[in-house]
Amino acid sequence: MDMMKPSTKEDIQNGVVATSYGNIPSTTQKCAQGICIEVSLKLGCIVIFILASLCYINSINGSFVFDDTEAIVNNEDAKGKTPLNEIFFNDFWGTSLNHRSSHKSYRPLTILSFRLNSMFGGLNPTHFHLTNVLLHSICCTLSLIIFATLLKESRPRLSFVSAVIFSVHPVHTEAVSGIVGRADLLCGIFYFLSIYLYAKHLDAGSLTSFAGSMASCTVAMFCKEQGITVLGVIAVYDVIRSVSGTLNLGTIIKRRDILQRFCLIAVVGMALLYIRLSVMGSTGPPAFQRVDNPASFADSMMTRALSYNYIYSIHALLLVWPQWLCFDWSMGCIPLVKHVMDLRNLGSLFFWIVTFSAAFRALFSPSQRQRKFLTLGLALMAVPFLPATNIFFRVGFVVAERVLFIPVAGYCLVLVYGAEKLCAFFPSCSYSKLLILRCCLLSVVLTFGLKSFRRSLDWQDEGQLFLSGLKICPLNAKVHYNIGKNAADRGLRDVAIDRYEKALELNPDYDQAMNNLANLLKDLGRFQAAESWLLKAISVRPDFAAAWMNLGIVQALLRKHKEARMSYLTALSHRRKYPDCYYNLGNLYLELERYREAEEAFRNATLLQPTHVLAWTNLIVMLDNTGQSQRSQSTALEALTILPNEANLHFSLAGILGKQGQFKESERHFLSAIQLNPHSPIYHTNLGVLYHRWKKFQKAEQSYQRALSLDPQWKSAIENLKLLEKAKQK
Question: Which residues pair with 353 in a beta bridge?
């Protein structure tokens, strides 16, 4: 096929194929040789790999933070607890793509990498973080190869400096130190690989390279949706590589080989889009909430346009000076731009002036070298960012550092070219002037590297991460919410209540904050206040299943049994597979002595979640207390086949067997329970009761004494010890 042929001599003579730009002898380039160190490709790769690793080596000691919990710890797909094929039918968070609550983020290959981590290292965060650091280092090494390929540098010079800055850029911290950023790292690797193979195809006309480029694009997309945009980048590179002179549509249309390649790229792109839309499920696009992306919900088109443009300028600012990094920019972090006279519009205007100026020079500059650098740089910055613009569809964030992972590569090209052009202002290229330029570049690298290292420390622990967000976005209700959630997990209830109340002050419709605040108030015995907050939560979001369930719990505590039952049933209508709700409904029926319905509810809980220990335990105890000892015993044995190392189940079964006079078997299960949980005084006390009834008084006394050593005030052990003394005296 014509499209697969490399550039011919005739093409070159006709001036339609660019020469090797890296070899253009010019004052600027000669000066650049003084600014940028020339290294071999092999040495450059080693330096880049080590540098990228050093910036984030401290993240290896981090834990699971923020989204890591939902994407990995609570995701059965990531832990390998579901059949392998399920990862291709569920979203990134383990929810079926057909479920209406699905986030619709489809990244099966990233989930597969989490699954492999879990398979070989369990849920040890160190292994996950180490994998991220290695993947980032590989991606940065590939960036050097890509830059060298695009700039035609056999011995990297400008490409080496570009790769160094790419490796240390602080905006990468979220992708590297946050484990869920694995999606960006894997996507980046195959994104660069696709560009590299396409460049090789243009060099030699190899079908294999072209197929490999398209395959890499496909893999990149299945790691993260952004991967499909590489098709746009390679299309721009094709034009820059194949057409010399000022770029115009007429020249491109006349090139049959370019059009043929574009047609194939378009076919691949449409096929991938079809696949992506097909797997989205029957429920359509994700339904984000207003708090996730307020600008996209604004009624005024002008507000949306002004806010979007300001958000673009914020992303650009993070590329240039990544000082203000935050794990979450939603809610009130960036207030909407509602008026033309808002001073923030000056930032948007400056952003577009710079962008259009660069684009104009990229298209019409008389310098082929300048057109090449600017076009490639702008393409790498703009094209991967397109999915985050809200132009094609609504996204679930305001500002996201992770979406800048690949655009950083374009920024690095433009920055280094800017340094090269700056040198052109010094014709003599004196040593002192070169030294100043070198120091400027070195200061950028050191500043970025130290910032990355420091920022990575914030991502080691949720407490540090959330507090760092408070410095950047004090008006973000979600930041306060996460600080409250973290405080609650650590038992700091007063701090948690204060943060939840602050979050609700900033966002009065924050239903999740209402739900969590209500749970804390419930634990403190403030049932009326808890009920009030939960009623507000379900008024804000009527399909909030967790709030309905928690409302049922509070209403049951307030003896509002009829209302509690309706709340539980409403929760189940919104979330059919809700084992905790079935468990609480079973407790309500148990309290109302509606045993058949209680058993049905407990059974539903264990069917949906076979490891639901509390549901098994309450079912076993209920059957035993209602005189169904044989069924209780068989249920306990059934539960132990699923949870053989659950102490409470051994304890329950031991009690049943003891009542039936099966002392030997009862003793075995008591001892199993104690072996699994040796610090429970009730286990030792009840074992003592068994020995007491078995007439093994010495063992009974030892068990009671052991219980009292664990809790000197354990009333049951004290009383039974007195009864034992009386029995021994008879």
Answer: none
| 613 in Cβ contact with 648 (< 8 Å) | yes
Q: How many CA atoms within 13 Å lie on the side-chain side of 244?
A: 12
| Phi, psi of 75, deg, nearest 5 | -105, 110
In angstroms, the CA 649 to CA 262 distance is 65
Short-list 518, 577, 595, 598, CA closest to 553: 518
d(CA 444, CA 169): 9
Residue 15: name the closest of 234, 242, 202 by CA: 242
Average pLDDT for 533-551: 96
The rounded distance, in Å, linking the Cα atoms of 217 and 232 is 11
- At how many degrees (to 10) do helices 579-591 and 595-608 cross? 160
Separation of alpha carbons 680 and 654, rounded Å: 15
Tell me how many degrees the CA angle 57-63-64 measures, rounded to the nearest 5.
Answer: 120
In the structure, what pLDDT confidence band is assigned to residue 27 with cuts at 50, 70 and 90? very low
Residue position matching structure tokens 């006309």: 205
Structure-token pair, residue 314: 């914020």
By CB neighbour count within 10 A (0-12 exposed, 13-18 middle, 19+ buried), where does 344 fall?
Answer: middle
Instruction: Give the C-alpha separation, 158 to 45, whole Å.
Output: 14
451 exposed, middle or buried (CB, 10 Å; 0-12, 13-18, 19+)? buried
Q: What angle do CA 629, 633, 639 make, to 5 degrees?
A: 140
Strand partners, 90: 96
Rounded Cα distance, 648 and 473, in Å: 45
Answer whether 1's CB lies under 8 Å from 260's CB: yes
Cα gap 465→456, rounded to integer Å = 9
Distance CA 695, CA 727 (A): 9
Phi, psi of 587 (to 5 degrees): -65, -40
d(CA 412, CA 417): 8
Taking only the tens place, the pLDDT of each residue in 381-429 is: 999 999 999 888 888 889 999 999 999 999 999 998 888 887 766 655 5
Other Cβ atoms less than 10 A from the Cβ of 469: the count is: 24
**Coil, strand, or helix at residue 90?**
strand
Hey, which residues does 96 pair with through a beta bridge? Answer: 90
| Burial class for 323, CB neighbours closer than 10 Å (0-12, 13-18, 19+) | exposed
Render pLDDT for 663-720 as a digit per residue (tens, 0 to 9). 999 999 999 999 999 999 999 999 999 998 898 988 999 999 999 999 999 999 899 8
Can you tell me the distance from the alpha carbon of 690 to that of 720, in angstroms, rounded to the nearest whole number? 11
Closest among 18, 67, 491 to 244, alpha carbons compared: 18
Sign of the CA dihedral with 696 first, then 697, 699, and 700 last:
positive
DSSP string, 605-632: HHHH-TT-HHHHHHHHHHHHHTT-HHHH
**Half-sphere exposure (Cβ direction) of 457: Cα atoms closer than 13 Å:** 5
Residue 683: both structure tokens together: 């286990």
> 96 by DSSP, 3-state: which?
strand
Chain Cα centroid distance, residue 390: 20
| 29 has pLDDT over 70 | no
Place of tokens 């290896």: 60
3-state helix, strand, coil in the chain (%, to 5): 75, 0, 25
Euclidean distance between CA atoms 216 and 476, whole angstroms: 38
* Concatenated DSSP letters of 268-292: HHHHHHHHHHHTT-TT-S----TTT
pTM: 0.83
> What average pLDDT does this structure show over 601-623?
95
pLDDT digits (tens, 9 = 90+) for 580-599: 999 999 999 999 999 999 99
Distance separating alpha carbons of residues 184 and 727, to the nearest angstrom: 71
Taking the C-alpha atoms of residue 234 and residue 257, their distance in angstroms, rounded to an integer, is 15
| Cα pseudo-dihedral 162, 165, 166, 168, rounded to 10 | 160
Q: CA geometry: angle at 387 spanning 383 and 392, to 5°?
A: 115
